[in-house]
Every structure is written in structure tokens, then in C-alpha cells.
Model the fold of this input.
Amino acid sequence: MVNHTSQIDWDLSDRVDRARAYEILIRWGLPQAMLRWLDGALLVDLWDELDLPEEIRTCWTPAIVHATPTKTVDIFDFSFSRVLGPDGTENAEVRRFEALPPQPQKPTRRRKRRVDPLNGHPWG
Done:
């Protein structure tokens, strides 16, 4: 992100700095950097103010629309389209950046036993 601008420090609590940083991240950032630095609610809030090419805006618009809260809520609409994780939070997927598989369990160590070659009894 630093390579695309002469600015070194970014104050993400400042709306103007945050908008410029988000523009750079969305244009040139890696998915890992976007996941690290983009805040979904703040991105939705800034979306109309960002200076982005039309191709990028077209690609991102469905996610922004999906994340934008509706003004009216139908309490009888049970057709939830968002996937909730086991902890009740929404999950986001990034294409070609799947979660790492679980680490294999370490094999259990077998206790080595020494055997007396003459008597056949274990020593320890």
C-alpha cells in the first residue's frame, strides 16, 4: 500500500485519510491486506465518496448492496440469505483464499522400553 503513494502514515480515524487508503487498498491491495485493513461498515459508509474506476465499482457493488442495512425491516421475512457461522457471526468468503485446513494431530509417542537380552525382562 505504501508503494502506491508518497504518504507514509495513514490516520484511519480521519475520514479523508481513510477514504484515500481504502481507494488504494481496493485498487491495488492483496486480499489479505483488504481483510486486515478494510472495515466493512466504514467502507459502506464511504462507498459513494470513493474515487474508483467503473470496473472496480461494478465488481464491488453487489457486496456493498448486500452489506448496506435496509431502511425498513420486515419482521416476517425469514428468508435469510446470509450464512451464520457456529458462533452466530456472518461469514465472508474470499475466492481462492480458503481457510487453512486443520493441522494434523501429533502422533502419540510410544514409550520406549529396553529389554535385557539375557533375561528378557524390561529394565525400565
The mean pLDDT is 76. Residues 25 and 33 are 7 Å apart (CA to CA).
